[in-house]
Predict the structure.
Amino acid sequence: MFLFTSTKRFYITLLFLLIAVTIPIQAAAGAYSEYGPVEIAGMVLLYAAIGLIFIIPEIVYSLTKTEKLLKRYEVNKDARPQIQRQERARNGELTPRKINAKCRCATFSGRKGGSYRATLKSCTCPDFKERKAPCKHMYYLMDQIERSDSRE
Ligand SMILES: [Zn+2]
């Protein structure tokens, strides 16, 4: 399973891990001669730990059930406006450009030519921005993820 939904976080982690790896190499080449092996090992662990902290939210996100992610919004999903959004998501009104069930993200074409990027945490569409509640894009994405999960 590919755990990194956000490439930025992934790159930050990678950067810190690379620094961690280069420390013993530099030490072997004569750098950090004022430090002992324990201190050098500590530096390696410190950089590796900082790097890993950045992907923890991504790992948690990828392991959390889709339903639960949407539930954190305090909206009653059975309320009429929310049901309408779920119906719109299922009625083929949306124009998905890219759906990635693994990274749990999707891109949709907007009506006015722009595009919206949705995850189960947020969406860039005006509806979500205004209400901070799951929009039709997020419901659509959730359906797609659940469908792909049930196929595995
Ligand atoms: Zn949206």
About this structure: The first strand starts at residue 96 and ends at 100. The pocket of zinc ion is lined by residues 116, 118, 123, 125, 127-128, 135, 137 (CB under 6 Å). The chain has two domains: 7-63, 66-151. Residues 7-63 form one domain.
